[in-house]
Amino acid sequence: MNRTRLSSIDIAGITLGAIAFLIVVGSLVGLIRQRTFGFPPWEGGPMFSIGGAVREEKDDQVPGTFTELEIRNIAGSIDIRGSDASSGVAIHSVKTAPFQGALDNVRVDIQQRGNRLVVEERHDRGFVFRTGTVSFQVAIPKGMKVVEAHSVSGSIAVHDVESGIDQTLSSVSGSIATSVARNLDASSTSGGIEFAFAGDRLKAHSVSGSISGEIRSLDPSGRADLSTVSGSVTVNAFAGLDATVSLHSLSGRVSCDFPVLVAEQKNNRLRGKIGAGSASLDAGTTSGSIAINKM
Question: In angstroms, rounded to a whole number, what is the distance separating the alpha carbons of residues 81 and 58?
Fold first, then answer.
């Protein structure tokens, strides 16, 4: 009797085919379950979920008087808002991962360093699957003076906070928005920036994204630098703006509502003084328009 023996290539093919079949079936089951019962794929799911995810939410109330906040994560949104509290910081974190082992690998590390509260996403060393992410919703008390938020791949929003807070906000791939800031340093590689500013130093930079916002006040010795490679720059400024302006676009028009003592003017370039020119306002883009409007 002749027996057909399977080669190692045949065995590998059969194994891969079986794995592919299980992935397809698991995905279809997850999709049907979600559409039929309205459940998110992580609710009541197994430790390892094909086509789904696992999720964990937690609330931390950190007592103490803090004037500085620093938040860092890798791939998740950061939302910071003001509260009526006079002390303490409320932190709502949402961890997500494709399976339970990856979720357990992600930690939220909270440390108090003097008057600064530091909140960070951490991953256990040596763990193979670093696929979990953390999103933060943070409520800050009155009296906060400094806010720093950094995300590799996620949006950052600061809203309903007191004026007078210096903010440093950065994301590699995500948008940035703040409803009001004193001094502001905002940067995004791939994402737009929206702001409201009233202080001494404003810096907003994006590689691929538009910049828009309000300059509600600018100190006489202050400086505002706005730049993007691919995107427009639109600023609404307070009526009493007193600044030396330099607006330049490689491919786009520039405009200014304020009366300017012109030093240089072209379709894509404008230099001159508004008032005495005590402060400095520089806005530039490679591909896009620039507009400085009076509020």
Answer: 17
Asked if 289 and 270 count as a contact pair (C-beta separation under 8 A), the reply is: no
pLDDT at 102: 86
Strand partners, 280: 223, 244
Reported as a pLDDT band with limits 50, 70 and 90, residue 141 is very high
Give the pairing of strands 233-237 and 290-294.
parallel
Looking at the predicted structure, is the pLDDT value of residue 39 above 70?
A: no
The CA distance from 287 to 295, in Å, is 25
With CA atoms as reference, report the closest residue to 221 among 245, 200, 236, 202: 200
Mean pLDDT score of the chain: 86
- Supply the pLDDT for residue 171: 97
What is the tens place of the pLDDT at every residue in 187-236? Answer: 999 999 999 999 999 999 999 999 999 999 999 999 999 999 999 999 99
